[in-house]
Write a structure and sequence with these properties.
This protein is an alpha+beta fold. The chain contains 27 helices and eight strands. It has a five-stranded antiparallel β-sheet with strand order 1-5-2-3-4.
C-alpha cells in the first residue's frame, strides 16, 4: 500500500498519528524544497531515519556521529562486509550492544525527525513493507532504537512555540553569521566549556549555523536556541549581501570554488532574483565541473533576463548553458527562437542544422522539421533550410510535405542559376512523388540543355539591356552638352554687347541665367569665374566713372569776358 500528499493540507502530526494507530510498517519519505528525510516505521514506532537524496551513506554516517564506531573502524567493517553481512559483523563485534552508543543514535534520530515538524511546505509518500537495503542498511534496522511516535509528537508540540521564536532570528540553517565586536569580547570572558562560548567561537570567521552545530555535535534544536540567544544579545550578525558577494569573488579569484559556492548560495537564498550573483554562481559551478547544475543556473538566469526584456543577455546565458551541456536541445530550441526574433540569420540557420542532426540521431525527425519551419517563417527563401526540411520530412515518412519543400528549394536553385543542385533536387522530388509530371518535364528540359540555353539567352538579354541603358545615359548627356554649347555662343555675343555699352550688371545677370539653364555641363564649368570677372569689370567701371565725375566738379569755372579776352590773346575769336 502506498499513499502520498502534502503536509500543507494534511498535517504531519496527523500522518504520524495515522501510522501509529494502524501499527503500520513501512518507509515514509518527506521531501522539502532543499531537504529530504526518510523515516522507517516498525508497527507504528519509529525504527530509524536518514537524511539526503542518497541516505544509505548518511545512514552509515549516523553510526559515526552517534559514537557507535569511529570512521576508521567503520571503513574496516565495510571492507569485511563483502564476505559477511555488515549487520552480523556489527553484532559480533558488539558494536550494537553499546548502550551509550545506541542512546546517542536514538537521540540523533529523534532530532532528525523532530526537525521535520518545523517545515511549512513538504510532500510525503508512505510505502508499506520492509525498508529497501539500499535505503536503510541493515545495521540501523537491527539496532532497535525504537522511538515512541506519540512521545515524539508531544515533544514536537512542546517545541513549536520555541521554534516560532527561533525562526524570527534564524530564517535558514544555511544562513551565515560572524561575531560582532561585542561577541568577540564575550567569547574571551566565557569560561572554557561554556556551551554559548563554544558555539560563538565557531563564528570567528563567517560560517553557516549547520556547520558550527555539526562541529559541536549539538542537537539542532538546542543549537538553534543558543544561536538565537547570541543574535538577540547582538553577539552575532548576519553577513550582508554585499559582503557575501565580495567574499565569493575573493574565493573565486583564489580558485577556492567550494567556498565561493557557499557564499553565492547564501546570496541566492536571500535574493533569488539577484542576476549578478546567479551569473557568478553558474561560473563557479562550471569551474567545479558540475556542468548540469551550471547549465540549470544559466537557464534560470536566461529566463529572468527574458522576463526583464534583456534579450541580448538572455541569448548569452542560453549559449553558456549549451556550452555546459551541448546536448541540451530544449535550450537550443529556445536559442533558435531568440536568434530568429533578433534577426540573427546565420546563427539561427547553423543551430537549426545542429538540432536536426541530434533529433534525427534519436529518431525525432518531426522535431527537427518544426525547428526548420521556425527559421523559414522568418527567411522563406533560405535554400539550404528548405532542402534540409524536405529531407527531414522524407525521413519521417511524410513524402508529400517533403516533396513540396524540395520543389520550393528547386525554384530557389533555378533563380540562383545553380543547375547541378536544381537537377539533383528535382530528381529527389520525383523519387518522393513519382506521379509529379510537371517536375518530370522540367527535369527532361534540363537534361536536354534547355535550361542552359535559356540561361545564356537571359545573360545576353541582360547585357543588352545594360548596354542600352548606358548608351541612353551617354546620349542624354551628349545632347545636353550640344544644347549648352549652342546657347553659350549666343549668350557670349549678347554679353559682349552689354559690356561694350558699359552695362556690366546686365551682362552678369544674362550670363547667370545661361548658367542656371544648363547646370552640370562642360559649357558652364567656368561660369563662376566668368561671372566674377564680369562683376569685377562692373566695379572698376563704376569706380572710374565716379572719379571722372569728381574731377569735373573740382575744375574752376571762368567768367565769360575773361574767356573772350583769353581767346583774343590766343588769336581766337569767339563765335
Amino acid at each position: 500500500m502506498t499513499f502520498r500528499g502534502d503536509i500543507a493540507s494534511i498535517g504531519l502530526a496527523n500522518v504520524f498519528q495515522n501510522l501509529k494507530n494502524n501499527r503500520q510498517t513501512g518507509t515514509l519519505k518527506l521531501h522539502a524544497p532543499d531537504e529530504t528525510i526518510w523515516i522507517y516505521f516498525r508497527e507504528g514506532e519509529i525504527a530509524c531515519a536518514a537524511a539526503g537524496e542518497k541516505p544509505s551513506a548518511a545512514s552509515l554516517q549516523l553510526l559515526v556521529d552517534s559514537g557507535l564506531v569511529t570512521e576508521d573502524r567503520l571503513r574496516e567493517l565495510l571492507a569485511a562486509s563483502r564476505k559477511k553481512k555488515l549487520a552480523d559483523i556489527l553484532i559480533s563485534e558488539g558494536v550494537l550492544d553499546n548502550q551509550s552508543g545506541l542512546d546517542g543514535l536514538r537521540t540523533y534520530t529523534q532530532e532528525l525527525v523532530l526537525q521535520c515538524f518545523t517545515w511549512e511546505r513538504a510532500g510525503f509518500e508512505f510505502t508499506e513493507g520492509p525498508p529497501p537495503e539500499q535505503l536503510f542498511p541493515e545495521p540501523l534496522c537491527v539496532a532497535k532504537i525504537g522511538i515512541n511516535t506519540e512521545s515524539l509528537m508531544m515533544e514536537a508540540a512542546r517545541r513549536m512555540d520555541e521554534w516560532s521564536e527561533i525562526k524570527k532570528y534564524i530564517p535558514s540553517m544555511r544562513e551565515m553569521y560572524v561575531l560582532t565586536q561585542e561577541g568577540r569580547a564575550a567569547v574571551e570572558q566565557w569560561e572554557e566549556g561554556e556551551p554559548a562560548g563554544a558555539i560563538a567561537a565557531g563564528f570567528h570567521q563567517p560560517e553557516e549555523i549547520g556547520n558550527v552545530l555539526e562541529e559541536q555535535r549539538m542537537s539542532r534544536f538546542e543549537g538553534e536556541k543558543m544561536v538565537a540567544y547570541l543574535l538577540q544579545q547582538q553577539f552575532l550578525r548576519p553577513l550582508s549581501t554585499e559582503e557575501l558577494i565580495e567574499k565569493g569573488d575573493a574565493a573565486n579569484a583564489a580558485d577556492d570554488y567550494v567556498t565561493a559556492r557557499r557564499f553565492l548560495e547564501r546570496v541566492l537564498d536571500r535574493e533569488p532574483g539577484n542576476m549578478e550573483a546567479r551569473e557568478r554562481f553558474a561560473h563557479v559551478l562550471g569551474a567545479m565541473g558540475k556542468r548540469e547544475e551550471a547549465a540549470s543556473q544559466s537557464k534560470i538566469l536566461a529566463q529572468k533576463y527574458r522576463e526583464a526584456g534583456n534579450i541580448k543577455k538572455a541569448i548569452a546565458a542560453y549559449e553558456q548553458a549549451v556550452s555546459f551541456i551541448p546536448n541540451d536541445m530544449s535550450a537550443q530550441e529556445i536559442l533558435v527562437d531568440l536568434y530568429v526574433g533578433q534577426n540573427r540569420r546565420e546563427e539561427a540557420v547553423k543551430l537549426s542544422q545542429t538540432l536536426e542532426l541530434k533529433y534525427t540521431e534519436i529518431g525525432m525527425p518531426t522535431k527537427a522539421a518544426d525547428t526548420f519551419r521556425k527559421v523559414l517563417r522568418r527567411w522563406p527563401k533560405e535554400t539550404e533550410i528548405n532542402t534540409a526540411l524536405g529531407e527531414t520530412l522524407a525521413t519521417a515518412g511524410r513524402n508529400a510535405e517533403a516533396a513540396a519543400a524540395l520543389r520550393l528549394a528547386a525554384r530557389l536553385h533555378h533563380r540562383a542559376g545553380n543547375e547541378s543542385e536544381l537537377k539533383t533536387t528535382l530528381e529527389r522530388v520525383i523519387e518522393l512523388d513519382p506521379g509529379d509530371r510537371k517536375t518530370s518535364q522540367r527535369l527532361k528540359k534540363i537534361e536536354a540543355g534547355v535550361f542552359e540555353r535559356r540561361r545564356i539567352l537571359k545573360r545576353y538579354a541582360y547585357m543588352a539591356v545594360v548596354a542600352l541603358v548606358i548608351l541612353s545615359i551617354i546620349g542624354f548627356f551628349a545632347f545636353r552638352e550640344f544644347r549648352a554649347l549652342l546657347d553659350e555662343r549666343s549668350t557670349l555675343l549678347e554679353v559682349s554687347k552689354l559690356i561694350a555699352a558699359d552695362r556690366y550688371d546686365d551682362a552678369a545677370d544674362h550670363y547667370k541665367l545661361f548658367a542656371a539653364r544648363h547646370p552640370f555641363t562642360f559649357a558652364t564649368l567656368g561660369s563662376a569665374e566668368k561671372l566674377k570677372e564680369i562683376r569685377e569689370h562692373a566695379e572698376r567701371a563704376k569706380i572710374e566713372a565716379g572719379r571722372n565725375e569728381s574731377i569735373k566738379k573740382l575744375e574752376p569755372k571762368l567768367p565769360k569776358n575773361e574767356a573772350e579776352d583769353d581767346s583774343e590773346m590766343n588769336g581766337l575769336k569767339p563765335e
